[in-house]
Amino acid sequence: MSGNTLGLLFTVTTFGESHGPAIGAVVDGCPPGMALSEADLQLDLDRRKPGTSRHVTQRKEEDRVEILSGVFEGKTTGAPIGLLIRNTDQRSQDYGDILQTFRPGHADYAYHHKYGFRDPRGGGRSSARLTAPVVAAAAIAKKWLHQQYGTQFYGYMSQLGSLEIPFKDLSQVEKNPFFAANADIIPQLEAYMDELRKAGDSCGARIEVRARNMPIGLGEPLFNKLDADIAHAMMGINAVKGVEIGAGFKSVAQRGSEHGDEMHPDGFASNHSGGTLGGISSGQDLRVSIAIKPTSSIMSPKQSIDLDGKPITVQTKGRHDPCVGIRATPIAEAMLALVVMDHALRHRAQCADVQVAVKPIPAARPGSTPD
Amino acid sequence: MSGNTLGLLFTVTTFGESHGPAIGAVVDGCPPGMALSEADLQLDLDRRKPGTSRHVTQRKEEDRVEILSGVFEGKTTGAPIGLLIRNTDQRSQDYGDILQTFRPGHADYAYHHKYGFRDPRGGGRSSARLTAPVVAAAAIAKKWLHQQYGTQFYGYMSQLGSLEIPFKDLSQVEKNPFFAANADIIPQLEAYMDELRKAGDSCGARIEVRARNMPIGLGEPLFNKLDADIAHAMMGINAVKGVEIGAGFKSVAQRGSEHGDEMHPDGFASNHSGGTLGGISSGQDLRVSIAIKPTSSIMSPKQSIDLDGKPITVQTKGRHDPCVGIRATPIAEAMLALVVMDHALRHRAQCADVQVAVKPIPAARPGSTPD
Amino acid sequence: MSGNTLGLLFTVTTFGESHGPAIGAVVDGCPPGMALSEADLQLDLDRRKPGTSRHVTQRKEEDRVEILSGVFEGKTTGAPIGLLIRNTDQRSQDYGDILQTFRPGHADYAYHHKYGFRDPRGGGRSSARLTAPVVAAAAIAKKWLHQQYGTQFYGYMSQLGSLEIPFKDLSQVEKNPFFAANADIIPQLEAYMDELRKAGDSCGARIEVRARNMPIGLGEPLFNKLDADIAHAMMGINAVKGVEIGAGFKSVAQRGSEHGDEMHPDGFASNHSGGTLGGISSGQDLRVSIAIKPTSSIMSPKQSIDLDGKPITVQTKGRHDPCVGIRATPIAEAMLALVVMDHALRHRAQCADVQVAVKPIPAARPGSTPD
Amino acid sequence: MSGNTLGLLFTVTTFGESHGPAIGAVVDGCPPGMALSEADLQLDLDRRKPGTSRHVTQRKEEDRVEILSGVFEGKTTGAPIGLLIRNTDQRSQDYGDILQTFRPGHADYAYHHKYGFRDPRGGGRSSARLTAPVVAAAAIAKKWLHQQYGTQFYGYMSQLGSLEIPFKDLSQVEKNPFFAANADIIPQLEAYMDELRKAGDSCGARIEVRARNMPIGLGEPLFNKLDADIAHAMMGINAVKGVEIGAGFKSVAQRGSEHGDEMHPDGFASNHSGGTLGGISSGQDLRVSIAIKPTSSIMSPKQSIDLDGKPITVQTKGRHDPCVGIRATPIAEAMLALVVMDHALRHRAQCADVQVAVKPIPAARPGSTPD
Fold it and tell me: Per mean pLDDT, which range of A126-140, C30-44, C318-332 is the poorest?
């Protein structure tokens, strides 16, 4: 495959460009018999949608998803689920300029050298808009995993630019445009973004994603460790430059006596591992952290070259997210859910009838701090 | 596949356990006509080998690789290359104890719940010993990429436990057991390790890996971005808990005006991107950083449970690396080479005859600091 | 993948059901820079279309294909090509009866036991209607292969029920509804079909497919032999029960002295191999023959069981092809083109820079009969 | 992958050449906990072994298989199973001649044009010797399928050259070197082969393979129909030129009223479908028939060209099977078992918890003839 399909057994194959007629996905491998409607997918699509606050791109997209196949009388049939989202806000654009230059930090230069030319419309295939069908597809996985194992996915922003966002209250996440688990810090975040926008600049963000009520035993021993596949999925999100599982880069300075999570009959005492042991889920919560770089499209001028290799100055106009990380939380959850789903099916294939005499212990012992 | 194959076109399929009769790999997709002998593979195998200093496991393994197929009269034929490494130091072990317990931080608990039981011999399939055939396989990729594009891979340790290792001199890397690019710091590292061993504890490490003279255009737009596949490969290495490309987690606090690498006719002015734009190689050096957790096998006691769920105290005996990161540099290089190789072949498939009018600019303009 | 994707490098992922809102495909891996428009795809879609003669189903479908992505300013970009065909003739159907029974020879019984229930609308996912997006996708492959190597695909019917159709004149194929390369036999075929329809019965057909101007060297040594992948593709077409390459089943009674195609400086003397040697294309024409079973939906009553396992009598009503083989020629060509395309890309990946000193000989020496 | 791996979830990756040091396979995806020893594999290896009668190649190979991994204390662990077979009879050969010519009907010409040169030792990678590790791998699948579902695989020769072999008695199959289910015809087959050998010629064969006690529901709707994957596997066997499922090419002349297998509460009334409906197993016996072409290596002279394109006469010397079909029965069984195994695991992945209210009917009603 040429890189537009994710997964081995639960596969998502996407198509579309930012300013083409439509984007979409084919979701294959969903178990049959699950109740599914477009409303199930719309919820996460709406969480990802642009134009919902002054801090994100003002592109107006309904992002209405249409289920084209794979569902009969409200239930999945086992056949592939075709998803279609029409692009409604394809502003006709004078992209002549863009085609003559390579914007610093953009995919322009790499695409041009790979394919010989490129589709300049709104970033074409490299646009973050392509995460919409992925989010819709993942909603199917989330629903199935929740019904099957009670697994739940959630995420929140833990840093915006240089501002750390202390975790306080998960219930706040959906109540502010930053997906911050902390109501008190919102004014500070708002001010930070306003200053940034005024400066014509952009910033990065750090997002945390979690899965709880994880089934044990997901992940394959060597190259398809659960955490390896998570890293793959996360680094595949636009603008992501780093991925951590559990203690992540902090584990470098940890000692073994501290890092290894002790087990007790009443549960794990800590979760430095981030939910996997030897690449296989342990039943602890999955803990993933990702770094999102600052948006490349900024109003301030940068040096670059044109198609003739001549030096030029590039300055982006138009509607752009000054921090793509603001909308990244639902996307990161989606990628995590897709990986877990694929591994849940893989696990059934090889180990459906494994009998384990040993009873699993709780994900976290009472009083332990999972993070 | 059940997770023991890496790659789509240049594939490495491994088998074997730490204390079984042999380990090995089938390497498929190598272009025909390349000179290849066992000596080409032995070099990197020897760099990875245990028992070469007092800071690593004292297991004595020759790690002699035998090429079983795919080479005729000293040249690759295009057929799969079978690699075999006999295990010579399979100490008969009293693993009865191990089988009754779940060691904290080990794969034991997860394997047991996945498969219903497990192979306790030296960690079985989850042992770092399994990286040997991968290193051998990657030597084939390295050779081909060097011949084809002049691409070179190298790595070094940048942090040992809490000690940062300032980069000074690449030529030092092969002259010390830590793969440190800094001769002055070696006594400090030695002392750190001696103290750790005395304490019966272990520590983590941070490894940097680089590829230079990279072809442009490798990587696929969406899910198989070059950096996504790198993250997958790196997180698949035993004990890795974090992966960064380019500026990594530092990019969170960067502004767009700083992060986006400016382009000039004489080259890129910086390399915060780490060598990819939109997931596709830009011709800049690949820059990857990984976090390796402290070894789980430590001499100091930890709390755990036994097969009956009863609380027990676990204390590891026997030969173990107090810092698996010490030997991880050649492994990380290997994984990077395998990903680049696979994408080099994928790129030829789709874009072999693309004509690019634009001349690429140098990877780094004179005077720029690539990191 | 769950079986709805064909190919490794040039992939076709389909979705849709016979009577859902739409069917379609995502085509991934097309080389960039090729001129492509909907008209290129429509030609073969029209050849496959129902309702074009009284001998095929009278379902009225426009089968208008829409390209949703992957093409910019009339050229492929290298991004996935989304194809959409709206179902326009979804007659509301009283399928209550169908849901209560298992029709002999239909997929009903197998689907029901696999998925627990099924989508009865026009056969759902098992309908031959799903070949439409495949035919559209293959038109892309055909165009590229023709531009790249001059490769051409064609097919014709060689047997209808018990009537053999002697090959006479390829130029007749598109001039009759049977794809017969023989004008003289058409009245006989018409009469045969009329009699069949009157009897409320159905019949099978044999289709020949060919590729000429084949590049040499396509196919992989062991499991992905070119002929193995052809067999896979052909047997994946609805109602196909047999596949032959070259001499096929006739080779059983041949002697080696007869079968092995002699080579001369002016070309191959015969083509019993059907265009492959050791599973790899030899430059000779590909010769494939397939058997299509009689349509299962017939007007005459057959014994079956209902959902309660009780015996019942089933009799199909409604519009059905009395011989699905009549419309199968463009489908078989499409499948052959998709396999050749995928292998053309695979070949470039591994062998793009192979230099062959030996000059290939012509596909057929003057005076030889290729079949 | 470059064509040396079969399967998606139960994968067999082979390596080796006819006259290299060893051949082997990595078998991945075997469910854990199954008792397995080398003796389980040796049985089928011995059935496939050369040198067992005067009608097959006199190469003396022990074909001793060594299990290198994936088994602990006599049980599969879920880790990949490494299989190794040393080549013991690698006669040093004067292949200088062979390298200068292209033998008609051999892979020489295609390999040379694909890879630029080739390994001439005993056919190298294109040798039928490579089926040995496949047969060993399939023995694992056979054992698991038998334990899990009672599924059994068997095969027999139904035609040798121009001699049809009427099916009489399955118990005879293992008692004669032809795998004929008919004791009476053996003298005739012996005479036929003796005459052939005297003439320095070769002949083809037709082999039937069956699976009984098939689980229902295996196979995926579109491109990975069970029969499509069977066709792929069968056509991947050396020298196979045709594959039929069920009625095969006979279905062309059948009417729908005859072909569609009627269902009754006490079972299917016939088995023209060959065990699949819509590409999904119906619980009926799988019925597969394959055509094997006459061996290309014959003693009688044939016209060909040399490396300079000059006409030459080729005449094979040395030990060769005058009918490779004689030893093909265990290989065809093996391929069938591998496909069924892979689909059994795939089925569990998607449909492990499907509840089917309808009771399956027997594979064949009393008194029906399954063929």
Answer: C318-332
Q: Are A28 and A10 in contact (CB under 8 A)?
A: yes
Exposure on the CB side of residue C268, measured as CA atoms within 13 A: 28
Read off the pLDDT band of C371 (50, 70, 90). low
Whose CA is closest to C255, among D55, D186, D199?
D199
Dihedral pair phi/psi, residue D174, rounded to 5°:
-85, 0
Q: Is A319 annotated as a binding residue?
A: yes
Pairing of strands B205-212, B152-160: antiparallel
Contact D251 C269 (CB under 8 A): no
* Whether C68 contacts chain A with CB within 8 A: yes
Assess whether pLDDT exceeds 90 at residue C123: no
- Please give the Cα distance from C255 to D325 (Å, whole number): 13
Mutation target for B interface from C149, C350, C351: give the one with most B CBs within 10 A: C350
Report how many helices (DSSP H) and strands (DSSP E) chain A contains, helices first: 8, 18
Q: Does ipTM come in above 0.90?
A: yes
Nearest-Cα distance to chain C for B338, in Å, is 15
Residue-wise DSSP of C238-303: TTEEEEEETTGGGGGT-BHHHHSPPEETTEES--SS-SEETTEE-SSPEEEEEEEPPPS--SS-EE
Nearest to A341 by CA among A79, A150, A142, A132: A142
List the chains bordering chain A where 3 or more Cβ pairs fall under 8 Å: B, C, D
Domains and CATH numbers, chain C: 5-351 (3.60.150.10)
Looking at per-residue pLDDT, the higher value among C37 and C121 belongs to C37
Q: Is D79 on the interface with A (CB under 8 A)?
A: yes
- Mean pLDDT across C153-172: 97
Tell me, what's the pLDDT at D93? Answer: 58
Taking phi over 0 as left and psi of -120 to 50 as alpha, with beta for the rest, B144 belongs to alpha
CA distances from C94 to C91, C227, C299, C317, D276 (A): 9, 43, 17, 11, 27
pLDDT, residue D72, reads 94
Contact check, Cβ <8 Å, A72/C119: yes
Report chain A residues whose CB lies below 8 A from the CB of C96.
none
Return d(Cα B262, Cα B361) in angstroms, integer: 12
Segment C187-199 mean pLDDT: 95
Average pLDDT over residues C170-188: 96
- Interchain proximity A351–D78, CB inside 8 Å: yes
Predicted confidence (pLDDT) per residue in A351-365, tens digit: 999 999 889 999 999
A9 neighbors A346 (Cβ within 8 angstroms)? yes
Q: How far apart are CA C105 and CA D263, in angstroms?
A: 9
Nearest to D251 by CA among D243, D260, D242: D260
The residue written with tokens 């019949």 in the block is C203
Task: Tell me if chain C has a CB within 8 Å of the CB of B325.
Answer: no
- The band of C55, judged by pLDDT with boundaries at 50, 70 and 90, is confident
The DSSP code for C173 is G
d(CA C26, CA A12): 11
Sign of the CA dihedral running A302, A304, A307, A311:
positive
Helix (H, G, I), strand (E, B) or coil at A183: coil
The answer to whether the CB atoms of C66 and A21 lie below 8 A apart is yes
Which stretches of chain D drop beneath a pLDDT of 70?
1, 58-59, 90-96, 318-319, 369-371
- Residue A151 CA to its chain's centroid (Å): 17
> Would you list the DSSP string of A242-297?
EEEETTGGGGGT-BHHHHSPPEETTEES--SS-SEETTEE-SSPEEEEEEEPPPS-
The token duo for A330 is 């639902």
Q: What mean pLDDT is predicted for residues C315-327? A: 83
Facing residue for A349 by CB, picked from D33, D221, D348: D348
